[in-house]
Amino acid sequence: MGGSWFGEGILTGSEKETMQFLNDRLASYLEKVRQLEQENASLESRIREWCEQQVPYLCPDYQSYFRTIEELQKKTLCTKAENARLVVQIDNAKLAADDFRTKYEVEVSMRQLVESDMNGLRRILDDLTLCKADLEAQVESLKEELLCLKKNHEEEVNSLRCQLGDRLNVEVDAAPPVDLNRVLDEMRCQYETLVENNRRDAEEWFNTQTEELNQQVVSSSEQLQTCQAEIIELRRTVNALEIELQAQQSMRNALESTLAETEARYSSQLAQMQCMITNVESQLAVLS
């Protein structure tokens, strides 16, 4: 206060006013500094309290997500390999089914050809049977005709003997006597020889025809039996091929069903994995 009074004693009036103005401004500045210090202290205290109340932030561990993603990627690769293997098996089953279908069609065609041959052989056998019956009827007719000729011959000979008698002698001028019995015997011998030759020729022809027919019948029977055996074998082959074809088709259907189920299951898993990857990427984007 003494210094201030001394200064006021030596200063002019305008200088006093200036000093008073400066003192007021300094006091105002100091007051503002004090207020700011108080406010800063209050803010520091509030910040400290807020930090003490907050839970310390820890960066989340994404290693489990990465391991899950890696496992899903491995499963996806395995699924793709399994799908490729199933596709190859389906293609092989289709090729095998086509091969069996081709074999089945060939066997059916062969069976039809053999059945056609058998029908032709049956017709030939029927014709041969009818021909044999006709020949047998002709032989019986020839035998009856031969017996009839023999009977007529005997009747004619007996009639001539009755007409001429045993003592008849015919004399011709300047001509030797003729023995009618000898002449008749010779005629009878010649006629019997002719009839016997005709009978023998007819029997030989009949035997020859019968032998040929028998051989043809035997051959036809053997061919028929062979064809029947072939048809039985072809039917067995066709049945086996049909069973194999049905098995291949069943396996193909099962593989296609398994492939569809596998694709649907792994499509769902891939969708879930994609959703997880999207969530992880969004969380990483928020953190960055």
UniProtKB/TrEMBL annotation:
The keyword 4Fe-4S does not apply. It comes from the Eukaryota. Keywords: Coiled coil, Intermediate filament, Keratin. GO terms for cellular component: intermediate filament. Residues 19-53, 125-163, 224-265 form a coiled coil. GO terms for biological process: epithelial cell differentiation; intermediate filament organization. GO terms for molecular function: structural molecule activity. Pfam families: Filament (PF00038). Residues 15-288 form the IF rod domain. Transmembrane segments: none annotated. This is Keratin, type I cuticular Ha5. The lineage of its organism: Eukaryota, Metazoa, Chordata, Craniata, Vertebrata.
